[in-house]
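Run log // design_07
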């Protein structure tokens, strides 16, 4: 999910690069694309700190607040702050309903996707500065053999090369004077940089050339490499019916509980041997009121599992019906689950904050707004909603371009305001024209009765 948000250059939240907190977790006024909502941002920061210290797995947080008050935005900020090693999985509650998988299976998969397993491996590497590469081609050119001379400050050794290694050296454009690292098991070559000793050899060198010192000591070194995979990835790779290709296709289907048990056992074994570490990540469930009572009772239980992530949920509903029951409760969440949660509330923005957010979004969308147009958008945002104001930026720009202007003026925003209704005007319109539009109660016995008397 994270990758998709990176690709979407001007998605709704592409201006957000973090939570905008300082080292003491105090919210900065305008930082990393974040404006206002200080209390909620700070709370999110405190929670992240606990996640990073591995202290808060198996808890649930609820972000509750009116529409467009930055709940999803704060979740995106959290994802950006966590770092690449800690999983952050985003799910919209309605994604749980699918024909291919039961609801609990897709929640289980989401849970397991949010738990990272950091696996430590020792590998043997050969690291040194290239002294010479010699390649001998046979007469037909079909076979290649060669020799690679590597040195450290203390020793020098000649290695025989096969054709695969020669191809790799050529692909990486390795030259004498480069410092390289070769993985002994896989034979993979990576260039670490150019040796300082050769810095003066060439006068034409790219600005991005990195100079490194010639390594000292032995050519062969042992290094610890660490990779992090999620529990779900381990499940998929080990499920015989799926195979790892399913990771790319995405349709993993259901995974057998026995297999999960086996994997849990194996991971526990690795942990005891010190080969692996569990990294509980964050699972974000947006629009959580869309989950039904079965999902909620599953969550109650799943949160108590020792390998549970931190679950962050968001909802913009007040007292509403819990899906699958006739009971009402705050945010459509059963009270026994609510009782286990920490609740962060987000509030409406004032006009100054809306102005700043509009300004950031306009920059993000490469739109120039005149000061008056910006002020008008901020006023509109205050009167209608922040989303509406943000949505008007692009149409206003188009209208300005039609008039051959390089920046958006008040007139363009006014025009856009006339062309596109906000929720309030749309509701009024729907009321006024209720007789002419299809409504639920007008469909009787399979055919539509239209009442045009209004
Ligand atoms: N504090 C903020 N700083 C910068 N941009 C923000 C902030 N809050 C919201 N935005 C932007 O405003 C828009 C609406 O906010 P967002 O989608 O986060 O609202 P929401 O609370 O999730 O609403 P809903 O309940 O309707 O899902 C988004 O484009 C978001 O990036
Ligand atoms: Mg949202």
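design_07 sequence
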């Amino acid at each position: 999910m994270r990758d998709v948000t990176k690709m979407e250059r001007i998605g709704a939240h592409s201006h957000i690069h973090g939570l905008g907190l300082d080292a003491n977790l105090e919210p900065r006024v305008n930082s990393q694309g974040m404006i206002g909502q200080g209390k909620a941002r700070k709370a999110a920061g405190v929670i992240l700190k606990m996640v990073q210290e591995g202290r808060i797995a198996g808890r649930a947080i609820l972000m509750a607040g009116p529409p467009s008050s930055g709940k999803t935005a704060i979740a995106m900020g959290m994802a950006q702050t966590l770092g690449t090693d800690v999983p952050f999985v985003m799910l919209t509650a309605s994604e749980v309903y699918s024909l291919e998988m039961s609801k609990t299976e897709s929640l289980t998969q989401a849970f397991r996707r949010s738990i990272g397993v950091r696996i430590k491996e020792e590998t043997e590497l050969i690291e040194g500065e290239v002294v010479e590469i010699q390649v001998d081609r046979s007469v037909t050119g079909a076979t290649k053999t060669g020799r690679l001379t590597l040195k450290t400050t203390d020793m020098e050794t000649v290695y025989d090369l096969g054709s695969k290694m020669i191809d790799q050296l050529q692909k990486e454009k390795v030259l004498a004077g480069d410092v390289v690292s070769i993985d002994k098991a896989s034979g993979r070559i990576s260039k670490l940089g150019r040796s300082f000793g050769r810095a003066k050899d060439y006068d034409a060198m790219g600005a991005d050339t990195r100079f490194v010192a010639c390594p000292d000591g032995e050519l062969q070194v042992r290094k610890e490499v660490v990779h992090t995979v999620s529990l779900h990835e381990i499940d998929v790779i080990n499920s015989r019916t799926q195979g790892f290709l399913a990771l790319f296709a995405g349709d993993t289907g259901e995974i057998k509980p026995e297999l999960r048990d086996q994997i849990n056992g194996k991971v526990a074994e690795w942990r005891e041997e010190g080969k692996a570490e569990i990294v509980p990540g964050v699972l974000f469930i947006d629009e959580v009121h869309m989950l039904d009572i079965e999902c909620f009772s599953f969550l109650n239980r799943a949160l108590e599992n020792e390998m549970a992530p931190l679950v962050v949920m968001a909802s913009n509903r007040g007292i509403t019906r819990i899906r699958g029951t006739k009971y009402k409760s705050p945010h459509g969440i059963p009270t026994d689950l609510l009782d286990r949660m920490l609740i962060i509330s987000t509030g409406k923005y004032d006009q100054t904050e809306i102005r700043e957010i509009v300004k950031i979004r306009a920059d993000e969308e490469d739109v120039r707004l005149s000061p008056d147009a910006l002020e008008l958008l901020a006023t509109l945002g205050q009167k209608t909603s922040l989303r509406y104001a943000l949505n008007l930026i692009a149409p206003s720009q188009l209208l300005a371009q039609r008039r051959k202007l390089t920046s958006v003026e008040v007139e363009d925003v006014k025009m856009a305001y006339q062309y596109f209704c906000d929720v309030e005007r749309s509701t009024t319109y729907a009321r006024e024209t209720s007789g002419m539009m299809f409504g639920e109660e007008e469909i009787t016995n399979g055919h539509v009765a239209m009442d045009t008397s209004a």
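Confidence is low (pLDDT under 50) at residues 1-8, 443-454.
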